[in-house]
Amino acid sequence: MSPNTNTQNIQQQSQITIADQEAPIVILFGAPASGKTCILVRLLRYLNQETNLQWEPDATFRSVTIDPIYGTVCEKFKSDVNASTTPVATPPDFYLLAKVRDNYGKTLFQILEAPGELYFPTDDLKNNAQNFNPHSFSYPYAHSIINAPNRKIWCFMIEPNWETPSIRAAYVDRIKAMKMHMSPTDKVILICNKCDEMPALILGKGVPNTSLFQQEMQNQHPGLFTPFINQHPITRLFRKYNCSFVAFSSGTFFNDGTYTQSASEYPKTLLQTLLRAVRGY
Question: For the chain, which residues make up each domain, given as ranges?
Fold first, then answer.
């Protein structure tokens, strides 16, 4: 049995439950190694260290009958958030839902941690680019989450000088295809991760030149912003796109497996952007 077949079998057998169908779900959407796990860990560390917000994995998200180790995985993830080592990439069969609550216990939003292969199978695309279908998702999990009644906040990962122009074009096609799964109340955040790889566009500690990063990502990913052009005759005068843009860095990673977290301005800006999206702005 191939690894891909094993992964599909696990996902077909597993069950998920989204108990809270009111709080928005933040979907960190990106290819493998695009930094989704590192972004989540940096954001949750910021919540722990510098805010009154609380978070915890949703223990009911996966069936403990079919997946008895899920509770252990949740506890390990909580300890990993505070570790000094580099966060491990999400395994192909691993899903986790984390709840973020205010100091009154109200859930503000939920964040989905899922493998990049679910969203954009880069290796498959490299091996068989001609048959890549931007509308096709092979995992039942994807449809269960995407079709949940909760409002979604789609966080699409992009990064400087990623892969080849053809693969970037295919990724843009995937993002465009996701529009058919979005409701009018959903929000979109484009996150330029690993922005520290372009130091010339960093104005100071934790302060990226957001407009120049946005322009650079438009140049490197032609058509990326096209699905989000604001067509409203009035609001388009002061808001060109119906999406937000954030330049982000998780930190500096070292060969020995450790890393130094980024300046708090990065997760602070991301959190503020998420909260605006939660409130419908």
Answer: 3-278
